[in-house]
């Protein structure tokens, strides 16, 4: 039977730096596999919509501009996304990836969570006829 | 029995608890003379919600039933659905499922150690065990990308592989945690003051444990040799057997010792697994429509047996999924064990089954004469600490 069993830990801690991370003043490198904001490459997309079908939170919408010429626009809602990466797994053409750097996604306005990906002219033609969306990262 | 009898309702809202419960304690002076529990306040409708989503979407919904043991929910579901579809995940995927499940067990048990120490007023142990828990959280983050809700499972396999870099992180993390676990084992079985709160408190014999149907470390602390990983090996547990840790004393101290010794067993299992990780694919093809039929899937979650019933009518959505979490099985023991104990022991008794008690709780002391006083969970915790301090 002992008492003060943790005294040694406490004394040792006096000679160590605090373990608390001083975020955001000091930033730790992000883990390579961290799943952040979804990125979409329109070049290889065939519009199969498998990513949309299995998304557990309806965060992705694929809008067809011209199916014959494979022109699509993807609307991604980071506010709905659970970052499970099922869409990345489903994509057979490796069009999707989750950024390990882009993870600080807090915003004051709900509209800022919505990102519209695609060829510039396609996005413009879509935005011309639907409600405008914003992107915190300035895509 | 004195004339004045108090009924103390605890709950029903416990934000930190998976299943918020309402406990009614009848006390005669300081001694609890009766206790009852009422559950069902945290009904989120998940079992109904899964019926309107497809099999893949359900994986992520079910993973979110519990924030601490999320991976084991997803594993139980995947194994059940794969069984229905007649698909077996590749051996490497099964081994990685076991790896993540065991890392999750480390994180859960260390979290519990901290919470239980905090309830006893031993905040130094709480702070240091949670500092060390960061090690396993970082290992999980390196392996899967997330600290919680790892999303490591897929129907038919897993998403993440173990490469050299991750392997080194895991092994160095385990070395550190093993040293610390031995230290914590010394503390919980040797600290005179802490033992006053745990030794001989909440005694449950193996007969009682069998009768009440408790599972997991709570049962094993009462001498019941029951562990799904051994009794009905799933995933890769037949390749990597574990030694069941059993204590026979059945008090709170035994529950601490069982969980900490289980950690040592887990470190050993992870090292063996990483030594002989089978080569091969990470996933296999799964049909979108699952053949009609029904199955059960049982896994050993950190808190005990987790049970899934899955029924398919041949479509791309499940017809019915029923989940039973270990907290439900263990809850009956709290009401039985409370009788005859001091009111001051209640926070520790409740925490002993690991029901995720941690946050501020609402607690009302109702006096039968009509006057009432509201107590918070924090106040009951402080009352427990002060009561033991007075007794010396």
Whole-number radius of gyration of chain B? 22 Å
Element order of chain A: H for helix, E for strand: HEHEEHEEH
- The CATH architecture of the largest domain in chain B would be Orthogonal Bundle
Number of domains of chain B: 2
How far is the N terminus from the C terminus of chain A? 64 Å
- Put simply, the count of helices of chain B is 14
What is the CA–CA distance across the termini of chain B? 26 Å
Mean of residue pLDDT of chain B? 86
For the secondary structure, the number of strands of chain A is 5
Biggest sheet architecture of chain A: 3 strands, antiparallel
Q: Do you know the CATH topology of the largest domain in chain B?
A: Cytochrome-c3 Hydrogenase, chain B
Report helical residue fraction of chain B. 40-55%
Structural category of chain A is alpha+beta
The CATH first-level class of one domain in chain A comes to: Alpha Beta
**What's the β-strand tally of chain B?**
10
Number of helices of chain A: 4
Query: In terms of per-residue confidence, which ranges of chain B show pLDDT below 50 for 5 or more consecutive residues?
Result: 356-368
Strand content of chain A: 15-25%
Write the layout of secondary structure elements.
The complex is a heterodimer of chains A (139) and B (392).
Chain A: H1 7-14, E1 38-40, H2 50-54, E2 60-66, E3 71-77, H3 86-90, E4 96-98, E5 114-117, H4 120-129
Antiparallel strand pairs in A: 1-4, 2-3, 3-5
Chain B: E1 6-10, E2 22-28, E3 31-38, H1 46-49, H2 55-63, H3 70-85, H4 91-119, H5 123-144, E4 153-154, E5 157-158, H6 164-190, H7 192-198, H8 206-212, H9 216-220, H10 228-231, H11 252-275, E6 293-301, E7 304-312, E8 318-324, H12 326-338, H13 346-352, E9 362-366, E10 372-376, H14 377-391
Antiparallel strand pairs in B: 1-2, 1-9, 2-3, 4-5, 6-7, 7-8, 9-10
Helix pairs in contact in B: 2-3, 3-4, 4-5, 4-11, 4-13, 5-6, 6-11
């Amino acid at each position: 039977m002992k008492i003060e069993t943790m005294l040694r830990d406490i004394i040792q801690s006096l000679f160590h730096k605090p373990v608390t991370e001083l975020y955001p003043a000091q930033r730790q490198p992000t883990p390579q596999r961290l799943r952040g904001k979804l990125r979409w490459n329109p070049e290889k997309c065939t519009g199969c919509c498998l990513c949309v079908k299995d998304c557990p939170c309806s965060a992705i919408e694929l809008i067809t501009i011209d199916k014959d010429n494979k022109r699509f626009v993807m609307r991604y809602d980071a506010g709905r996304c659970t970052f499970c990466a099922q869409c990345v797994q489903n994509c057979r053409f490796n069009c999707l990836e989750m950024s390990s750097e882009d993870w600080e996604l807090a915003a004051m306005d709900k509209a800022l969570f919505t990102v519209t990906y695609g060829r510039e002219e396609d996005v413009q033609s879509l935005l011309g006829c639907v409600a405008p969306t914003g992107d915190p990262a300035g895509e | 029995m004195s004339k004045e009898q108090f009924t103390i309702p605890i709950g029903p809202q416990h934000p930190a608890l998976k299943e918020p419960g309402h406990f009614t304690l009848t006390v005669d002076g300081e001694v609890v003379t009766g206790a009852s529990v009422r559950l069902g306040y945290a009904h989120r409708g998940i079992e109904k919600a899964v019926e309107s989503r497809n099999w893949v979407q359900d994986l992520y919904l079910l993973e979110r039933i519990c924030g601490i043991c999320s991976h084991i929910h997803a594993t139980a579901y995947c194994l059940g659905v794969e069984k229905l579809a007649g698909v077996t995940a590749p051996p490497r995927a099964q081994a990685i499922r076991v790896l993540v499940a065991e890392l999750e067990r480390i994180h859960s048990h260390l979290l519990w150690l901290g919470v239980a120490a905090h309830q006893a007023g031993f905040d130094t142990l709480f702070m240091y065990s949670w500092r060390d828990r960061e090690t396993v959280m970082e290992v999980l983050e390196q392996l899967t990308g997330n600290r919680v809700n790892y999303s490591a499972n897929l129907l038919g396999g897993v998403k993440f592989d173990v490469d050299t870099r991750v392997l080194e992180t895991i092994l160095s993390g385990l070395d550190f945690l093993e040293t610390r676990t031995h230290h914590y084992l010394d503390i919980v079985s040797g600290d005179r003051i802490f033992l006053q709160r745990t030794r001989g408190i909440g005694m449950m014999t193996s007969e009682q444990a069998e009768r009440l149907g408790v599972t997991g470390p709570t049962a094993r602390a009462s001498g019941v040799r029951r562990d799904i990983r051994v009794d009905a090996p799933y995933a890769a547990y037949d390749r990597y057997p574990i030694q069941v840790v059993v204590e026979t004393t059945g008090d709170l101290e035994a529950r601490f010792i069982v969980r900490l010794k289980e950690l040592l067993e887990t470190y050993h299992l992870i090292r063996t697994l990483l030594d002989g990780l089978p080569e091969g694919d990470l996933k296999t093809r799964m049909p979108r429509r699952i053949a009609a039929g029904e199955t059960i899937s049982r896994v050993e979650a950190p808190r005990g047996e987790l049970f899934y019933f899955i029924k398919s009518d041949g479509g791309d959505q499940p017809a019915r999924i029923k989940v039973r979490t270990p907290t439900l099985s263990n809850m009956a023991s709290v009401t039985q064990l409370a009788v005859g104990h001091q009111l001051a022991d209640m926070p520790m008794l409740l925490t002993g089954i690991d029901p995720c008690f941690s946050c501020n709780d609402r607690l009302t002391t109702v006096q039968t004469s009509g006057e009432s006083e509201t107590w918070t969970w924090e106040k009951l915790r402080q009352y427990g600490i002060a009561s033991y301090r007075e007794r010396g």
